[in-house]
Amino acid sequence: MTITKQLHTPPRTIMTPGPVEADPRVLRALGTPILGQFDPAFTHIMNETMEMLRELFQTKNKWAFPVDGTSRAGIEAVLASVIEPGDKVFVPIFGRFGYLLTEIAERYGADVHNIECEWGEVFDPETVIREIKKVNPKIVAMVHGETSTGRMQRLKEIGAACRNQDVLFIVDAVATIGGTDVKVDEWNIDALIAGTQKCLSVPSGMAPITYNDRIEKIIMERKKVEKGIATKADAQTVRLRPNIISNYFDLSQLQDYWSERRLNHHTEATSMLYALREGLRVILEEGLEERFARHRLHEKALVAGIKAMGLSLFGDEDSKVPTVTCVLIPPGIDGEAVRSTLLEQFGIEIASSFGSMHGKIWRIGTMGYSCRKDNVLFTLAGLEAVLIRNGATVNAGSALQAALEVYEEEVALSSL
């Protein structure tokens, strides 16, 4: 008989665009005793979580709850519940995850229209708005922060144009929510999808979403309750639109589960909800503006160190997302060898990229609990040492000094 050893994971400093280090308070919450999913104590936790999500999303929407599954589960739930075969969906693409929105929409029968820009850039909102008027879609689906390229798209003008044109605006904010400002109501976002494993500092496994009454109207016209739990009134409901194809990702059923009705849909991921609740509590305790400022500070220090080392950033800096920094791999340097050595010798993980960017850039995340001074300084020191070890020419010692100057300037300013 094989005796399996107790689980032990090596210590890591995770500086990727996700997952990131979970906040220790969140990890403690995961060990909270299990409650039944209809226990009043547990449904109270569900209600608290919804209320905190509304604050995080800066919305007055009734519906704000997590979909069990990774961020992609939230994206699919929203698109599956809104898209009907033949619907026109417009997806502007400026990185990998625009292609993901496109693929999911196509799988649910949408007629998808795309425009693309170079990876490392974003769209002038007027370009998107002109295309919306030309295509006249039912839905515009767009990424806010692209982790594949480290860019962030301006959304406010696009949201206003969608509302004026009576077009639904669905946004993937997985990489930005909790790390930079995202204003659901002010930007006229009809549905927004987040993820737990990035700036929320919660393990991967839930996708918080929110949507307004414009989205709910469509969902309710497609509503179907499972026969095994449907009442006579449910069975007599006349649907005005085709059924939502997916059962698991059917938001009309999830609404019933998260509403006062508490109609069973699935067994809730109890411990993950504890973790999400604690992650949200920590965020709101810190304060949204304070949290966004913290992310900007550590991004500034990291960027200063990278440049002082003699490395170059990838992409248009005016559209850089504050939670991900993309670094060009120096000529003649094996990017994967650097990443491997950094992990093996220092326990630091940074990321490569996807598609045409693979092998050309590193992506360093400063997200949530990973977004800390000690992590930034340690990453700069480790990266410099490994680059020198791999024969790269760098300005030895300059990176840490540049980052420290940023931190010292911040201390000086805060004391004024």
Stretches where pLDDT is under 50 for at least 5 consecutive residues are none
Q: What percentage of residues falls in helices of 4 or more residues?
A: 40-55%
Q: Mind describing the biggest β-sheet?
A: 7 strands, mixed
Number-wise, the strands total 13
Radius of gyration, whole Å: 22 Å
Average pLDDT, rounded to a whole number, is: 96
Structural class, please?
alpha/beta
Order of helices and strands: EHHEHEHEHEEEHEEEHHHHHEHEEHH
Determine the strand fraction and express it as a percent band.
Answer: 5-15%
How are the strands ordered across the major sheet?
2-10-9-8-5-3-4
Globally, the shape reads globular
State the end-to-end CA separation: 67 Å
Number of helices: 14
How are the SSEs ordered, and which strands pair?
Blueprint: E1 13-14, H1 24-30, H2 40-57, E2 63-68, H3 71-82, E3 88-93, H4 96-107, E4 111-116, H5 125-135, E5 139-143, E6 145-146, E7 151-152, H6 156-164, E8 168-172, E9 191-193, E10 206-211, H7 213-221, H8 232-235, H9 251-258, H10 270-286, H11 288-309, E11 324-328, H12 335-346, E12 348-349, E13 361-365, H13 373-389, H14 398-414
Parallel strand pairs: 1-12, 3-4, 3-5, 5-8, 8-9
Antiparallel strand pairs: 2-10, 6-7, 9-10, 11-13
Helix pairs in contact: 1-10, 2-10, 5-6, 11-13, 11-14, 12-13, 13-14
Question: Gist?
Answer:
By secondary structure, the protein is α/β, with parallel strands linked by helices. Helix content is 42%, strand content 13%.
